[in-house]
Every structure is written in C-alpha cells, then in structure tokens.
Write a structure and sequence with these properties.
alpha/beta, Arc Repressor Mutant, subunit A, Aspartate Aminotransferase, domain 1, seven-stranded mixed sheet, 17 helices, 17 strands, 44% helix, 13% strand
C-alpha cells in the first residue's frame, strides 16, 4: 500500500490528521502541526486521548521514530501531555499570564519553514566539536579573529562587494558599535547631525556621552543635501548618522541619486557618516550603500540582530582607514572588550556553512507574510513599505499617537508612539507596529484585528484604575 493511501485511510480514522499528506517539510513536523491546527479548529479538545504511537505509525505507514518525534514536538509546544500507562492526551491550555501582546520590539520573526531551535543545537554542536573550548571561554582583544572577519566580509559582500577582512571589525551588537563611533569621531559637546525622526538608540548614546544632536530637514527621499551642507557649516559638525534603507521607524529608503548627493556633501565638508544599515537585505532592489560612494568617509554598520537573531550579539563594522580602525577599537574596548566568543564563532560558522543565508531567507519570507497579513487586517491603513520588520502607521486625525498607544495598552497591545523616535521639529502622528516580536502568527493576527477595531472608532476618555 502506498504511503499516500495509508495517510488517507489514517485521516478517515483520525480526522485530526487532515492536511498531513498535503503539507511540506519533515513528516514529524507535519503531524505536530496537524495536532496544533486541529486544536485551533476544535477538532481536538483538551483531554482527548490520542492513539498510541505504534498504532498511529502503523495507520500512517510510517516508522515509529517519526511518530515519536511528532509527539515529542507536540509536547514541546505544550499541545500534548503524557500520562504514563494511560497514554497521551491533548493538554489543558496553559494559562497565559502575560496580559500584553508586544508589537513594540523590533526583532526578527521565527523563520518560515525552519526550526530555529534545531539549527541552534546543530550549530552549537559543530562549534564545540571544531573549536578550542578554552578559547571560547577566554578573553579576546576584540575586533574578531581572522576567520570571524572573513565571515563578516562574506556576509557583507551583497551590500559592499568584495572586502578585505582587515577592514571588518566584529562588535558586540550595533548599539555598542554606534557608541564607539560617537567616541571615535566626536568630542564631548560636539554636534552630531541626524534626521528628525530617527532610531532612539542614537539619542540614548548621544545623551550618555554628552554629544548634541542637531536635526537636518528631510523629505520623502531622505535628508536634503542643501540642508545638510548648511548644517555642517553652521555647527562645524564632523559626524552624520543615517539609516538610509527601510529607515527605522519610517521604512523610507533613500534613492541612489540622493545617496550620491549626500556623499558629495561629506566629501566637500570633511564629514564622516555612520551608515547604520540593518535592513538592507530585506529591501527589494536596495540602492548601493553610501559606503560605496564615499568609502573613506563612511563607517558601515550591519547587525545580525535584525536579520537572524539578537541573541548572537554580533554586528560588523567596515572601516577602511587603519588609523580610524585603531581609534574605533580603542573606544570600543573602553566599555565592551569583545563580542561573546561562543556566539561570534556560531555566527561565523553559520555564515560560512550557508546556515545564516538559509535562516535569513526564512526570516524574510515570514516577515513578508506578516506584512501581507497586516495589510489585510488593517483594512488598507498600512502606508509604509511592506518589507522589513515593522510598519509605520499614520493615524486618523481623531487619534494622537500618545492616545492611541495608551488605548492600545488598554486592549492588551504594546505599540510605539512617534514621540519615542522624534528628535525635534513637528511630531508625526503615527505609531510603529513591530511584526516579529510575537512568535505565534495567530496571536499576531488577533492583535492586529483588535488594533484595527480600535483605529476605526474615535477615542474615549481613559482613566487609570486604582487597585
């Protein structure tokens, strides 16, 4: 008997198996996902007893190991529970104590079609087999080993072309890199130029180190070159911060012509640019980075936190001039000696063996599926690019971003109001909705529906409850 016929007969006997024969991916995962879907559809209910593993394996025409892995995966997802000799039962739903659905943290979603935990276990196993464990637990001078820098150059090749590994520095995250670049290129009290709506980590670092942020006028294509040149001359600024591709939070991408114009200003004014570019790989037909237009005037920052996972704590910084690299490393070591060797080695292995690209493809595909879901559930309200990890959502006139964020919190939703991103000037009436921080896409859909319903009605008066 063919396996397809066995599955069809098993589905007739066990209706909750519907879809196992039509799905893709490993068979054990298809069985676990069928259990999850059956629970969602009400075909299975808490307390239902599932057939013994040997019986189900026989019914499906599969080996016992496949069914055992399927049941173990379902238990890991808290869908099933074993009760010894009594058998395996559908678990009682776990009580959800977290009252707020987080749509505020910009992190990658679970990769589509992949099991991240399995990739992590496999990767760490290979690292421990191949690496010197004493070195993994030791101090390092920072900047990454030759192999780490070679992997960084390979990761950055789609953006910057062939790089010499010596030009790549491995850092413990993009925020540490940003802080070190501020220390490298400015002195206390000096001005740093930036767009008015911007990444809040820049403001935090500038405040901590006593630097003054001055905003430069921008339009839909990004910072205006004439305004930038005036600001350089007026303030004597030596440093500019830009996030030119799928900008956080507006999702705007600066076109090639504007990048060339900004690079020209940098050359004329002796300006150094921090090009923070975490989302370049998510963009369709992203323009070449500014680092290609003015390589000696740009420090290029690319983090794995947005493409793969923030837990790696690895970012790459490209600095071509030896003297600037030395100053940057001295600044970085003053507060962050090194990227964690274990996770840096894991990132290197994933890049060199192709796992990083596989993982990113899954993250990008899931992020785009979530953008499509948001476009559907927000009923045409989405105005930002349908790429990257978040939405920048302009609000109807009857809502302010602060009121909407407060009302959303009352509905169990955390969103980020525009005030968090505004360095000065007129306040945009918008919120940022992060699509990756909720692992379960069904919970994300439910949250977006609640948000859409909230946006459709005028605000009411809100009062704090006193308990």
């Amino acid at each position: 008997m063919s396996q397809t016929k066995s599955i069809q007969e098993a589905t007739a006997k066990h209706p909750w198996l519907a879809g196992v024969d039509a799905g893709s991916g490993p068979r054990y995962l298809r069985i676990a996902e069928a259990i999850e879907q059956a629970l969602f559809d009400g075909i299975l209910k808490p307390g239902d007893r599932l057939p013994p593993q040997r019986e189900l394996a026989s019914d499906l025409g599969m080996d016992l190991t496949t069914v055992t892995r399927a049941y173990d995966e379902a238990k890991r997802r808290h869908l099933l529970e074993g009760k010894g000799a009594r058998g395996t039962f559908v678990a009682t739903p776990r009580i959800e104590l977290a009252q707020v659905l987080d749509l505020s943290m910009n992190i990658p979603p679970p990769p589509a079609g992949l099991r991240f935990d399995e990739l992590l276990k496999q990767g760490l196993t290979q690292v421990l087999l191949r690496a010197d464990t004493e070195m993994l637990m030791a101090y390092h001078l920072g900047g990454g080993s030759q192999t780490d820098r070679t992997a960084g150059a390979a990761w950055l090749e789609p953006m910057l072309g062939r790089l010499h590994p010596d030009h790549v520095i491995v850092c413990p995250g993009a925020q540490a890199a940003l802080a070190a670049l501020l220390l490298t290129h400015t002195a206390p009290g000096e001005v740093v130029l930036a767009e008015a709506v911007n990444y809040p980590g820049l403001r935090a670092a500038a405040a901590q180190f006593g630097r003054t942020l001055v905003t430069v006028e921008a339009d839909a294509d990004g910072m205006l070159p004439d305004a930038l040149e005036r600001a350089c001359r007026e303030h004597g600024a030596r440093l500019l911060y830009l996030n030119p591709t799928l900008q956080n939070p507006t999702t705007a991408t600066m076109p090639s012509e504007r990048r060339q114009q900004i690079a020209g200003v940098a050359l004329r004014c002796g300006l150094h640019i921090i090009e923070d570019d975490p989302y370049w790989r998510f963009a369709d037909h992203a323009p070449p980075p500014l680092a290609l237009a003015a390589p000696d005037h740009v420090s290029y920052v690319s983090t794995l936190s947005k493409c793969l996972t923030p837990g790696l704590r690895v970012a790459f910084v490209v600095i071509r001039a030896q003297e600037q690299r030395s100053r940057f490393l001295a600044a970085l070591r003053s507060f962050a000696l090194m990227a964690p060797p274990l996770t840096a080695t894991l990132a290197t292995q994933w890049i060199l063996d192709g796992t990083a690209q596989q993982l990113f493809t899954g993250v990008r595909d899931e992020a785009r599926a979530r953008h499509a879901l948001a476009a559907e559930l927000l009923a045409g309200r989405e105005a930002s690019a349908a790429q990257g990890l978040h939405i920048w959502l302009p609000l109807p006139g009857y809502w302010s971003s602060t009121e909407l964020a407060r009302a959303a919190a009352g509905e169990g939703l955390a969103v980020t109001p525009s005030e968090v991103f505004t360095l000065g000037g007129p306040l945009p009436n918008a919120i940022r909705i992060s699509l990756g921080s909720t692992p379960d896409s069904k919970r994300l859909a439910a949250g977006l529906r609640r948000l859409s319903q909230l946006l459709a009605r005028a605000p009411q008066s809100f009062s704090h409850q006193v308990i």
